[in-house]
Amino acid sequence: MKSYPIVYQGDIATALNNIGITDFMILNDLLAVAYVADDFNGDILDNTYEVAWYQESKTMSTMIEINENIQGGERVATAAGINFIEDNPYINLNGKDVLIGIIDSGIDYLHPDFINEDNTSKIISIWDQESEVKPPPEGMIFGSEFTRDDINQAISNNDDTLTKDNIGTGTIAAGIAVGNGRVNELYRGVALGSELIVVKLRQYEGTFKEGRINYINTDFLAGIKYILDIAKKEDKYLIINLTLGQRPRSLILTTLLNTFSEIRSNGVFVVSGAGNEGNTDVHYEGSLQGVDTFQDVILEVGEQKSLDITIALNDPGRVGVEVISPSGEISYKVEYAPDNEQYEGEYNLEDSPYETRLIYPWLLSGNEELLIRIIDIKPGIWTIRLYPDIVITGEVDIYLPNKNLIAEETRFLDPNSYSTITFYGGTESVITIGAYNDKTNSMWIGSSRGPLKGRELIKPDIVAPGVDIIGPYINNNYAKATGTGVSSSLACGVMALIIEYINNQGTYASRALYTRVLKTYLMLGATKNTIYSYPNDTQGYGVLDLQRTIEAIANKL
């Protein structure tokens, strides 16, 4: 199965049906997602007037690394600094009237940390995209929706068959944010009064390497739509926690998240982990010289099924490419042509088919995007040969898929750890959180870094504890977890407390609860180490600090 996010105009439903696409979902006034057979020729969409832009779906992967041994782990309460709330008799906050959306591997809904004292669930609803037990949510074409009544009935019957989290990343993300610590009070989450909306995404195995699980952005975007719909019915504040990341990108003007007008409205916030690619060798940064030269980039490839390579320019310049196999066979030379068509070929000696597409300009950056996919790729040293066509600044970035989806040995021989912010974390409309190790007062080495080139936008916005944090795990257990998905989960819980605090200050304050305002408060309250200059590309505006942020808000209201 292939799928496409589609930016559209006019009557997209009729247009898709007319070209034989019947499996699609309209997510908002600009965005639809379509699902087709593997042999579908995407060029058909080029000739469809209602399709303004499309691209084949992109892989996403978890930003949470789980360790089932909790020894040496840190309590959420300590990492989040919620003792300030607990010890202050004049502040009573628990995240009441705030919903937190989790789009990940699902949730262990029978874990007592998600069950209230009256034996009802903290979960408002679950969309399990893989289930066929019940009908899908309204407007969706697959999966099953489980309401709070369904979940409460399952709790009453101790029935664990509704939906399962077989990986645990969704469960631990939810628990760090809102778990109530009923199994062990020491390991409670941050915002005990907040509630959950959960999307269990469909899982795809072995896209690049056998045994590695990934998700895709079309399913993910549908999950965003579902969470926004449920939150609108509930009429409460909403925080959407992005614990999955698409591969990084150095220059992002917009993302498909921005087609959802709701995320720019009062009381809706999107929080994303910065990415776990800070030390993974998946990014190459170079500078192109004159148009009469070529430049070689060396790539080592390990044992894996396929590999995607993305080449991006940071200005309106252009570049062509050839890829040379370990045996010395040279691919078709891809250069600019106004058709944006996909070109296909094969390395005969390696028996490796390949596909290439040069898009100029690419909708989401305004610059060139050059995509290469090598299927059944063979291990060895591959060479990416760049041919400059138009050189302005000459800045070029090349990215591989996220490291946890590819072989350990697959890497650039001359990598760069900067400009590795995950794709959906790279815009102003998202609050982007890096991972900090508060036990050593230092950054976690895997936390992705800025800058976002060509823009005066600092990412990450702030950093938060994200190393060995203990939270609820599947089968009524606890585990410790590391990564920027952990940091974002902790930050979501803290933000729920802050939102409740602002809401308690009266109508005027609550009317100003927009992403930019909340982000400013977080920046003002962040702890800054005097040996660094702020903002910077590693820590943004500093380390999340609940007490200082509450004090900053109190001084401004």
Brief overview:
By secondary structure, the protein is an alpha+beta fold. The protein folds into 3 domains: 55 residues; 351 residues, Rossmann fold; 130 residues, Jelly Rolls (Sandwich), CATH 2.60.120.1290.
Explain this structure to me?
This protein is of the alpha+beta class. The chain folds into three domains: 2-56; 62-278 and 423-556, Peptidase S8/S53 domain (Rossmann fold); 283-412, Jelly Rolls. The strands form six sheets. Strands 7, 8, 9, 10, 13, 15, 26, 27 and 28 form a nine-stranded mixed beta sheet that branches. It has a six-stranded antiparallel beta sheet with strand order 16-24-18-22-21-20, with no helix packed on it. A four-stranded antiparallel beta sheet has the order 2-3-1-4. Strand 26 and strand 27 form a beta hairpin. Helix 6 runs parallel beside helix 8 and helix 8 (484-503) packs parallel to helix 11 (546-556). The chain starts with a strand and ends with a helix.
The N- to C-terminal Cα distance equals 53 Å
Shape: globular
Within CATH, the superfamily of the largest domain carries the name: Peptidase S8/S53 domain
Detail the poorly predicted runs: none
In total, the number of strands is 30
Number of helices: 11
List descriptors.
alpha+beta, Rossmann fold, 9-stranded mixed beta sheet, 557 residues, single chain, Jelly Rolls, 11 helices
Question: SSE layout and pairings?
Answer:
Blueprint: E1 2-8, H1 12-18, E2 23-26, E3 31-36, H2 43-46, E4 51-54, E5 59-62, E6 65-67, H3 76-80, H4 83-86, E7 98-104, E8 123-128, E9 144-147, H5 148-156, H6 169-178, E10 195-200, E11 204-205, E12 213-216, H7 217-234, E13 237-242, E14 244-246, E15 268-273, E16 283-287, E17 295-301, E18 306-313, E19 318-324, E20 342-347, E21 352-359, E22 369-375, E23 380-390, E24 395-399, E25 411-412, E26 431-437, E27 442-443, E28 462-465, E29 469-473, E30 477-482, H8 484-503, H9 507-511, H10 515-525, H11 546-556
Parallel strand pairs: 7-10, 7-13, 8-10, 13-15, 15-26, 26-28
Antiparallel strand pairs: 1-3, 1-4, 2-3, 5-12, 5-14, 6-30, 8-9, 11-12, 16-24, 17-23, 17-25, 18-22, 18-24, 19-23, 20-21, 21-22, 26-27, 29-30
